[in-house]
Structure formats: C-alpha cells, structure tokens
C-alpha cells in the first residue's frame, strides 16, 4: 500500500512532533526468491547488503533534516541519532518497510510534518480522543487517531499522542476506515494499558497530586519547573525496552495487511446489484465489529485478520458450512426438481420468487441447508434472509428461508397463511445417513409440501416459466442452466430498476406504471405474478443504487430551479 504510518506527540515546549515513522519502499524490479517471509527487525546478518544499502540511504537523507530542527528533548525523540532504524522485507513482493523518526524522502517529511501538526491541533474529534479523516489532493489524505497516555509528571497527568496514516488515495483510505480503526485501537490500547501500570506504580510511591497542591506556584519559574518533566519519552512512560521495534512490527504489518485486503479487479461492465449488496454487508459487519470492540474495551483477544473475501459474506459462508455437514445434499436446481417432482418444485420455486416464507422441517440440517443454498440462487442476494437451522420458529420479517428441527410446532397463523410454504422431511427407513450418497435422497427421505395458498402457480412468473424450460432440457448441463438463471436474474433486476425509478423516485401514477409494465414485458399471462416478483425484488436493490438515484433526482431539481 502506498501509504505511511507515523506516531506523533504534542510536546509541551515545542508543540507537535513526529516520533516514529514507517514507510513502504517498492523495489524497482522483482525481488529474488532466495528468501521467504518477512525479515525480523534487527536481523542484520541474514540480509546484509540489502538492508545496509537501505539504511545507509536513510541515514544520509535524514542528516540534513535533523540539523535544521530544534534541539530534541528525549520526549521528542524515538531513536538515538546513531541508530540506523528498523527494516523488514516482504520477499513475496520485495517491499521494504523502513522505520525511523522521519521519512527518508524530503518531500514526504513536509507532508508528515503537516499531518502531525493538524492531527494534534485543529483536526480533532469531540473529546480529543478518537479517529478523524482530513486532507487534500496536494498534501495527501490522513486517517488520524488521537489518544492520551498517562504520565504522573505531566500537566493534567497525561500526554497527547496521535497515530496517522497518510496516503494519496482518498477512496482507498476511506474504504479501509473500519480495518484501520480496529487494529490501531489494539495498538493504542496496548500502549495505554502499559503506561497505566507505570503510572499507578509511580503514584503509589509518590502521589503527585498532593505534591503539587502543597508546592508554591510561581509563573516566573514555571517554564523551568516544567522543562525537566516535559522530557519524558514514551519508552520511559511505558517501561517497554523494545517499544520501537514492536511499533515497527505493528506498523509494517498494518501497511502490508491494509494493502492486501483490498485489490482491484477488472470487471466486465458495472458491478451487479449482488456485488454491491455484498460489499455493503461487509462494510456493515466491519463497523459493527468495531463498535463492539469499542464497547468492551477491546477485550483480551485480538480479532483475526480476515481478507475481503471472508468478510461480509454470510450469504456464502452458510453454503460452505453446509458442505462440511455429513449426509446427502442437493447439488443443483435440477437435482432438487428431480427429487421433489416437477409440480412440487414449481410450487416451491413460486413461493421463493414471490417472497413468501419457505420453511423446511426435518432432522438433517445438512440436507436443509443444501436445499436453501440451491433455492437462494433464484433470488438476488439482497432479497435473502436466512436462518439455516433453528430450534424455534422465527417470524417471516426476520427470514424468508427457515430451517427447523422436526419437533418444532408451526404457529397457527403461519400454517393458515397463504404467504408461507412448509416442506416436511420424514425418513422412510433407518440407515446411517453419513454413508448415503446424493443420489439416494429419494430412497431415504420423503418430502411433503403444504401451503394455504389458493392461487394457481402454473401461470407465472415469466422467469420461472423460462427456467423450467431450461431445467427440463437434458441437453443443457448444470453450468449452462446456472448461467441461464444468472442472465434471467439480471434481466429482471434491470426491470426492477426501471420500475423503482419510475414509481418510487419519479412518483408516477398507476396508469403510467401499467404502461411501463407493458413496455417491460411484465403484462399478459402471469401478469399478477410478474408484478409481485418485481415488487419483492425491489428489496434486493443496493443502498448505493438507491442513494445514487435520489442524489441524481435532487441534483436535477436544483438545476431546473436555478
């Protein structure tokens, strides 16, 4: 990731100062594959020439910068002037992570300096502790998290610090907000808890509050009284002998992990609604995780790093879990149709497409979850709310796919409702379920489908009619049928977008809406089912798309009024 992480400190005599900085240096050519993994900071012998060259460049570039600054107090310095700094090398990419008090490039020095000053002066959140985002195209964009460290000798018994990440890519930095917030809080909480122990120990030996109340205050000598106390370093406050090596490891990992968790992919056209919904769910999960960690103080265990492909994908995680369960499973829509029968499958698929609650009740959770995996492919991701297997009934507003154990009763208002369908699974003969193959489902289980719906399900919707033609054609493979279903879903999602824009955003009347339905091909045989499908599938539209439409409409209204 083309970014830089820095630890900053507000000195009582000199103001904001940069204490420690970690930057990533990309190699001009691919690195040799003679090494593996990241080099441990301080391991000079194993990487001799490569590390020596980088550290020499670092020392030479910083000499002039240090000569032009104030004389440093120990509280304003992290490493001694003679210290060469820390370096880690990621041999998979050849990227070097260098850490010292200041960046090695002069142009970056001014950028970090400005970020440091702003993070500890004007760009702070309410309460002066917490994250904030600021920046511009010229000086870069900054994610800053300010915090306090306890110090028994400081004014107010605490000192002010901040950790800033500086990058030129605003979108990337904003999208990484939940990830950065979660992991920077772990580093900050570790520093604060370590410093608090030192603070409590010093207060136990000599309580400074009582000493200050009994001492004579003189404005003339106050700066001289404070000068000695202002020189305490972060190492002294935490009593951590390897503090800077530890921060180097933490910052290096943060740059590496943050750069690898989001990757650019070449897409054929605009992202689908399913992709947008999955991204939104991932973001919501990360925000919820950050809120929980903030509420419980971070806990004793740090969360495991997860790449993007593992976050926010409950829709896919349930499918992977079902494959781990023993016993036979449904493998495709065609397989499910063969087991249930054509008429029963159409009735079940009709309820799924109409948005009714689909309940499966049986003793085999793996079989039920595999059925849900197959049936969920009929719907956009945003329309799916699933409870794979439960010991009690859940209302329809919570889930439209519900798996129940065999002894769970169905409430009367549900069994008598036309907006639900129940599939009861019974075992015809005793056998070892784990040894039964997918082709033996019919010989082991018996399926009973019941619903209070009295409407005919053989007319529409049009999507189901076309899908059944594809499923009944044995010349088409399962993969071809899957792609056919994908195209049908995209076609009808586009119709949903048109209908949403026409009725919800533009606010057109019923007569005009009927004309649009005819234009979309939703009228004629099965018209009622097509309209119900379109209305239900509106819940599958992403928040991003809806917000984009509303913003565009408001922008057009403003331009017309002007």
Structural class: alpha+beta
β-strand number: 12
Radius of gyration: 31 Å
Residues in helices, as a percent range: 40-55%
Let me know the largest β-sheet. 7 strands, antiparallel
Q: Report, as a whole number of angstroms, the end-to-end distance.
A: 44 Å
Average pLDDT figure: 76
Envelope shape: elongated
Strand order across the largest sheet: 3-4-2-1-7-6-5
User: How many helices in DSSP terms?
Assistant: 20
Low-pLDDT sequence parts = 31-72, 298-316, 557-562
Strand content: 15-25%
Domain UDENN FLCN/SMCR8-type: 77-542
GO biological process, one term: negative regulation of transcription by RNA polymerase II
Pfam families: Folliculin, Folliculin_C
Organism: Mastacembelus armatus
Throw out a few tags for this protein:
562 residues, alpha+beta, Rossmann fold, 7-stranded antiparallel sheet, 5-stranded mixed sheet, 20 helices
Word description of this protein:
Strand 3 (86-90) and strand 4 (95-100) form a beta hairpin. The chain is 47% helix and 15% strand. The protein has a seven-stranded antiparallel beta sheet with strand order 3-4-2-1-7-6-5, sandwiched between helices. It has a five-stranded mixed beta sheet with strand order 9-10-8-11-12. Among the domains are: 3-27 and 78-205 and 231-260, no CATH class; 333-430 and 440-458, Rossmann fold (3-Layer(aba) Sandwich); 478-557, no CATH class. By secondary structure, the chain is α+β, with helices and mostly antiparallel strands. The longest helix is centred in the middle third of the chain and has 29 residues, at 177-205. Helix 17 runs antiparallel to helix 18.
